[in-house]
Design a protein that fits this description.
The protein has about 130 residues and is mostly helical. It has one domain. Helix 2 packs across helix 4 and helix 3 runs antiparallel to helix 4. The chain starts with about 25 loop residues before the first helix and ends with a helix. The relative contact order is 0.16.
Length: about 130
């Protein structure tokens, strides 16, 4: 009789037939993002966190969720570092230069560009390490 091996949530078999190890950074990022949004909704404000957490988490969530979907077709899929850098540059240009030029609700902040870069770097490092382990 076959049994089910116990495994932590972050490495259980995924819906797409692949272990979720490489998505650990995505799950953590999404948890932080939704937790932060819940704090804001509750009326709590942490000035530094409110300014830079969302840009820091944007690339890991966007790249990680996209990669997870693509892995349904190509299980060994991994983003190329050049793509991650290009996505960081385009995201930074869009959110820090283009959108603030026509929408007054958004402001341009050069520190956000650094937060996007750190998020992309973190995603690249942790997703690669997890893929090496699986």
């Amino acid at each position: 009789m076959g049994g089910v091996d116990f495994c932590r949530f972050d490495c259980m078999d995924g819906l797409l037939g692949r272990r979720l190890n490489s998505n650990r950074i995505v799950w953590i990022s999404m948890g932080l993002f939704f937790g932060h949004q819940a704090l804001i909704q509750s009326g709590y404000s942490l000035s530094g966190l409110d300014s830079y957490l969302d840009p820091l988490l944007f690339l890991p969530i966007a790249l990680g969720c996209s990669a997870w979907l693509v892995r349904g077709i190509a299980p060994g899929f991994q983003w190329d570092r050049r793509f991650v850098i290009g996505f960081w540059l385009l995201s930074s240009a869009a959110f820090e230069a283009w959108i603030p030029s026509f929408d007054g609700r958004f402001t341009s902040d050069p520190w956000d560009v650094l937060a996007y870069a750190l998020g992309g770097l973190g995603y690249s490092i942790f997703a690669e390490q997890a893929d090496d382990l699986s």
